[in-house]
Amino acid sequence: MYDMLQMLPKIVNMTLAASFAGCVVLLLRAVLRKVPAGYFYALWLMVFLRFLCPFTWESAVSLIPVRGDAVTYKSFVSAGVNVYAGVSAALPADSVIRKIPAAAGNMGVDYGKLLVGFCAAVWIAGMLVFLAFTFRSFLRLKKQVAEAVVLYPAGKGQARVYESPQIDSPFLLGLLRPVIYLPAGMKEEERQHVLAHEYQHVRRRDYLIKPVCFLAVLLHWFNPLAWLFFRFMTEDMERSCDDRVLKNMNAQERAGYAQTLLRLGLRNNGMGYMLPAAFGESNTKKRISHILSFRKPSVWLCAAALLLVVGAGAVLLTSPSAKEGEAQEEEGGMTAGPLEGEALAAGLSDKRNPYIGDHIRDAALFGMLPVPETLEYRKMELQTTQEPYELIMVYGLRENADMPRKEWSFSNAVLLFASIENAGKISYAVEKGAEEYRVTYDRSDAEAIFGPLYAYSADKDKMMELQRLLSSYMGRGITIEAGEEKIYTLDSEGNRIPGQAELDGEPEKTGEESEPEQTDNLPVRMELDKEVYSVKEPVLIMTIENLSDQNLTFGDPYDLLREEGGEYRLVPMKENTGWHDILNVILPGGNTEQKMDLSVIYEGLDPGNYMISKSAVLEDEDGEAGDSIVLSIPFVLY
């Protein structure tokens, strides 16, 4: 089912490329009026090949500004979501249409698939309607000629000729064994004119080519240009057959040929659009004008037109090559999302959403974020039945691609937490074969690093500040430890089988990657409100908690250390600056909070990795001071 949904963006890419190619042919057709119609007929066949062919070759000389992957499944869903949002915004709040996304989420149905599935259903329904109309017309025509009699048997390389009193205009019908049908009562001269024309169709296999082109129109029935191109292709096909007949006639014979076309064109049955070839169809007035003014083309004009067709094949049948900047992705395999930098901050702020159940805004938000090029979007899932509410993004790993590192998912999760207020968890899942690798991030863990996240999306500037915090946090070599990693087994239909296992091969956390050893397993806990601060506002809020059953005492002083060359070195204080001689006491089970503005005590702090270190003492059972405890906690200045 998913593969079928993936086909719809390919159809859109095909219709875009073919539309541009057809517009080029229309331009050439309008400018080069003296070029014989047969050469334009060849160009139209290239256009319809673009309508039918799902792949293409890349070329630096291509005139088609659309690459074969211009529209992806993800961008198709995003565009559909935006259209739906615009339509639903104009509807009443209690409209059934506006309730569809929430209902889909509660039923566990991916809204992206639902949207694309609806579009696919409309596309298929349209094809079936046009196909049914064509088949009905074909059966009606076959009924009309059911009693036709043989006029001429089939000769070598020619078709049988039948005559019927039930038709008004001659035509060619049939795929494997084409038959020419003539109306009864035609004059011998008219009959010879018609047969000369129809035999040209038979020799060129137009009875096969035109149905294939009509099939392309059925596939792209939603594109009005496809119908327009088919009309012009039919005109050039008929005119090129006229040219082949006219080049062997004198002026008097051409006038008779035009007279035959005029009489039969006025009596046509209106079915030429569907038929392989009908003598009296396709702009009779223009064809007669062309016949009366016909001049046999010169050799040099035919040679130039042939070069035109060959050159057009290079520019119409190929797509543009990827630019160097597009071919070489950013280091780490990350492709640029639809937005980045200031535009991303503005977009996330504009689409901020207090409720995770709003599929429209949720889809718009994740559509702005970058995703590794090795992944392709599959679906979005929501868990809104119980708290914490969870947003799950599911991707598929491309063939022969390596599993990406999880830093990208951590960054995206933080930005989503900042944009969706009641999202308690953000999960990113990657399907690889029969397994799904999932990492889940908790809002509380992210806010322990960056503070209250939803406040950042209040405006663009604050979102840009969060982006800088993220960049500094991840760019300082800090290992991403957040996130619970799991492996799920998938059944043949891609559904998760109950039961899960911890991710194999997860690297062991070393002493450098964990919190400082001094605070592990101690009856005292020291925490900061965030892990990343700006050098412009280095205000830290430190909480010290006494988990023991004894009093905890500590003084006002603390040490600030900066990492240099893999070691932490003491940062000197400003001149004429000192500490207050104050003794702080925390009772058992109690805690205290201290606010520290580093800019008051230290001067010229640069971005980097820092550590706060403080000494504290637990009283022994007799109330006397015991051994000193060193409390340390790292943080980052950017």
UniProtKB/TrEMBL annotation:
Disordered: region residues: 490-520
Query: Start and end of every Bacterial Ig-like domain?
Result: 524-619
Q: Which UniProt keywords apply?
A: Membrane, Transmembrane, Transmembrane helix
Domain (DUF4825): residue spans on this chain: 350-438
Q: Cross-referenced Pfam families, in alphabetical order? A: Big_14, DUF4825, Peptidase_M56
Transmembrane portions of the chain: 12-32, 39-57, 114-135, 207-230
Q: Does the keyword Cell membrane apply?
A: no
Question: In the UniProt record, does the keyword Transmembrane occur?
Answer: yes
Domain called Peptidase M56: residue spans: 10-291
Identify the InterPro entries for this entry.
Beta-lactam_resp_regulator, Big_14, DUF4825, Peptidase_M56
Q: What is this protein called?
A: Regulatory protein BlaR1
Name the source organism.
Eisenbergiella tayi
What gene does the UniProt entry assign to this protein? blaR1_6
